[in-house]
Amino acid sequence: MSELNNNKPLFWPIDWDDLTEAQRFFQNVPFFGIKAFVKRFLDKRMKCRTKEILYLWPDIQQVIYTRDIIIRFLIDYSFWEYPLFHPDDPCNIVFWKPDENLEIAEILTRISHQFSLPIHFFDDFNHKTLLQLVEDIASGANIQ
After folding, report:
1. 107 and 41 in one domain?
2. Which domain holds residue 27?
3. In a shared domain, residues 70 and 118
4. CA geometry: angle at 93 spanning 79 and 82, to 5°?
5. What per-residue confidence (pLDDT) applies to 141?
6. What's the pLDDT at 114?
7. 99: closest CA among 37, 35, 47, 46?
């Protein structure tokens, strides 16, 4: 349990490109599939985080404002029960939900509307950290 009691960035516990045939076939089975395993793993890591993680974020008002709005959307869509995010958490994990890809599109649409950004602004968000995305949004939206 000690390896979970930290504020390090999230990571995938498996290699999605190296699943066995059985893992691929049963990946969506509730409680036993690989997606359920990954969700439990990530939830456990998030639950072990402390509020000190917030001190890792830049103390810039636009960044904090943008981060907090994005986190509120993530909470609204029930992506995470414990929304303490590391700035280096990968977006492909932060915006991952094992059962709903449509919700990802919807949350990105809401973020784009909130900050008056074109939806194509998020074309490569899966290759960014949460901080990179937040900074891009904050600078692209010209938040005052």
Report:
1. no
2. 2-47
3. yes
4. 40
5. 61
6. 93
7. 35
> Which token pair is 119?
């939806």
Q: Determine which helix (DSSP H) or strand (DSSP E) holds 43, and give its type and residue range.
A: helix 34-47
CB burial class (10 A; 0-12, 13-18, 19+) of residue 66? buried
Amino acid letter for position 39 = K
Count up the domains in the chain and report the number: 2
Tokens of 75: 């909470």
Q: Which two tokens stand for residue 8?
A: 């390090």
Q: Is the pTM of this model over 0.90?
A: no
Compute φ and ψ for 122, nearest 5 degrees: -100, 15
Q: Mean pLDDT in runs of 10 for the chain (144 residues)?
A: 67 82 76 83 92 94 95 85 92 84 84 92 92 93 52
pLDDT score recorded for residue 135: 96
